Amino acid sequence: MAEYDLKRLNVAIQYMDRMSNGRNPATNQIVAQDSVLNNPNVIRCLGFIREILQDVAEHGGIVSPPKKERSRNQNYAEEFPYEVLASFEYKEDLQISYFLKQIMNMVETGKQVHIPAKVITDWLRSNGFLEKRMDPYLGKEVSAATAKGIDLGIRSALAGTPPNEYCRTTYNRNAQEFMVRNFYRILHEAYEAARKNKEEKKAMKQSADQLTKELMTGRNPEPEGMLKGSDAGAARLIDKILEDPGATARYIREYGNKLN
Length: 260
Prior knowledge:
Layout: E1 2-3, H1 6-20, H2 40-58, E2 62-63, H3 76-79, H4 96-104, H5 117-126, E3 130-135, E4 140-145, H6 147-152, E5 154-159, E6 166-171, H7 173-181, H8 183-216, H9 229-242, H10 247-259
Antiparallel strand pairs: 1-2, 3-4, 5-6
Helix pairs in contact: 1-2, 5-8, 8-9
């Protein structure tokens, strides 16, 4: 934590005021028209610096260090203070990240919970409001509103200018109020889905590691059609990576025959 002398801060703020108004900071005299202090970019920069100094002064000259990053295992579904949603007010159509920012601004400092936008969009996708599809104009996959999403108030449209165009999805009053009403459900279902997905991936990786170990040590794993449970899941994961269905089982069968 750093602490600055308020008297010196106030003098610095005064100097910023003078310079941003085209005056000599020491004499308060108007500078020549061609002075760098009359450059619009410099004026904006000085105004920005003044805002920072003013914020520090209003906090008694104290600048706190950044908050420690929350644990990656944070349970946002349990920690979010849902009672703040009672004071939610629609302001304008927003993209999901700005909608979440508005929500977080309602939460008391120190109690804010990090909720990635992906948590919300994945839930909307799994419930049929959004979908991933190939955009022929952009030539890439985009996340856009479905017919169900459009009925809810979700709008997807081309935005930006070439060559930086992208698909922008916004949420109107009805869509935002729907998400607020279902915020508890969204966070809990999303957190549980993420937890299960993590556990499944962990199990698949362990099975894949075990299969690899068996192959490397000369053991003959079960041939195609005999893989079960998490071993079958691991095989499907490897097949997906190789983009060749059945590749794992064929390799196991062929490798096993050589060992036998």
